[in-house]
Write a structure and sequence with these properties.
- The structure is a single chain.
- This protein has 468 residues and is of the alpha/beta class.
- The protein has 16 helices and 22 strands.
Length: 468
């Protein structure tokens, strides 16, 4: 038996390749599926099943394409409705894969069709639980993404409480837990950086699995402090329910090199967004006016999904040379299939053609240390929880996730300073503000990490147990 976790850091997502005696099951595959096919072919094995733990909101799964290419059967939990052929399994339905079995455990709560998959080894012993978004390491799935009709997030949280206690907590402590996501995912509040655990460890450390916890306490704790989900979540759910274009076709349609002149024509004659994905240190030194920075080096795809509201938005790319195809794939993972071309030769080609460029003012934390004595305005674009934990005294919290709600708070004329934790999100924010006419924005390089090394006054860290 082979179990391989295929973890994608940009999405904080785990897919799984399971092989036994010539047969393969794939759980929650990425949209680009050739790697799974190659693994199976190398072992001379056949992909038999594609198990989906639920309709994913944060990425486009590869189930439809993988089924088309291999003939494997797609499996969803009870109540799922799809526009393509799939097995809508019953609770406790058993699927045989080589010498092992995989049992679907219906665990509604994160969504109504949410299911976990319990793998029993060749001897019939419970070996591993593929817990999807029902159980994470250190957390559980958020219950606010599948509200319909009279079903509230409190109702879903109650279903999740029952699912955890009736289906998961009775499992043996040595059963391995393979979740669908780790730290950085927006599908939970406080996920661990670890990506593999055990039932016993989760019973001992996961707040949501406390043995003495009442349902009312669970509902309150799970629903408290939830930030609004990114705008692209329901759009990805729709694609995962209805189907989508093969990612190879997306690449063919999108990977079009454009000369400087052609790029400029496209920018002027369409409503395309110019997306610059180079490193922030390169972007601040020079970029095409009106372009938006979201660098490949950070959690690129989720930020694209959070900040670009329409997955059909035409996009023109400025990428590092050689990263064009990879960027298109990463956009397609979250449903952004409408790239219409990329700047051939990257930004250097634009600069060498003597086209107009813009720059972003960025200063060190030491410069801010001097400026702050002049009572300059400082804005912290980290998440509310980060800000609540510790922040620059008198800095205002304007989280990047909700930038539109804070636009009126930024000064129109006087220089103002923005920072995040390390410099990635602040440059994203600055690029958006620049595009909207705020040319008085100043980025603080190194973010709060650098600020803490200066004498700038900050609040004292708050004990984590007091944070909401």
């Amino acid at each position: 038996m082979i179990i391989e976790q295929i973890y994608t850091g940009c999405l904080a997502q785990g897919a799984y390749y399971i092989e036994s005696n010539g047969e393969v099951a794939i759980i929650d595959p990425l949209r680009e599926v050739q790697d799974y096919i190659d693994k199976a072919n190398k072992s001379k094995a056949k992909i038999k099943y594609i198990f989906e733990t639920h309709f994913h909101a944060d990425f486009v799964s590869g189930h439809v394409t993988l089924a088309e290419k291999t003939g494997a059967k797609i499996v969803f939990g009870p109540s799922a409705k799809t526009n393509f052929e799939a097995i809508i399994a019953e609770d406790n339905q058993v699927f045989k894969v080589g010498d092992i079995t995989i049992t679907l455990l219906h665990t509604p709560g994160h969504t109504m069709e949410s299911s976990c998959y319990l793998l029993k080894d060749e001897n019939g012993k419970d070996h591993a639980l593929f817990s999807g978004d029902t159980l994470f390491l250190g957390d559980v799935g958020r219950p606010d993404l599948a509200q319909k009709g009279d079903i509230t997030e409190e109702d879903l949280a109650g279903f999740l409480f029952d699912s955890l206690r009736e289906k998961i907590m009775p499992l043996a402590d040595d059963v391995i837990v393979y979740p669908a996501h780790g730290a950085g995912s927006a599908c939970g509040k406080n996920l661990s950086k670890e990506t593999v655990g055990t039932i016993g460890n989760q019973k001992a450390t996961n707040y949501a699995l406390r043995a003495d916890m009442t349902k009312a306490e669970f509902v309150k704790e799970v629903t408290e402090g939830l930030l609004p989900p990114p705008a692209y979540f329901p759009l990805n759910v729709q694609l995962n329910k209805e189907g989508y274009q093969d990612v190879n076709q997306v690449i063919e349609n999108s990977a079009k090199p454009l000369s400087v002149e052609a790029f400029e024509i496209h920018a002027n004659e369409t409503n395309a967004l110019i997306l610059d994905v180079r490193h922030q240190s390169e972007f601040i030194k020079g970029f095409i006016p009106q372009s938006i920075f979201i660098g490949l080096g950070g959690t690129f795809a989720p930020w694209v999904g959070a900040l670009i509201k329409d997955i059909k938005q035409p996009i023109l790319l400025v990428t590092p040379v050689g990263e064009e195809k990879g960027t298109i794939i990463r956009l397609a993972r979250v449903g952004f299939d409408n790239v219409i071309g990329y700047l051939e030769g990257s930004f250097d080609a634009w600069k060498n053609a003597n086209k107009e460029i813009d720059t972003l003012e960025s200063v060190s934390a030491e410069v801010l240390e001097k400026k702050i004595k002049e009572n300059v305005a400082v804005f912290d674009v980290r998440k509310p929880g980060e800000y609540a934990s510790e922040h620059v005294v008198n800095a205002l919290n304007t989280p990047l996730d909700f930038l539109n709600e804070h636009i009126s708070e930024f000064p129109k004329k006087e220089a103002f300073y923005i920072h995040c934790a390390g410099g990635y999100r602040s440059v994203i924010t600055a690029s958006i503000l620049k595009a909207r006419g705020f040319h008085n924005v100043v980025d603080v390089s190194g973010g709060y990490t650098a600020i803490k090394k200066t004498s700038i006054k900050t609040t004292s860290p708050v004990c984590p147990s007091t944070l909401k």
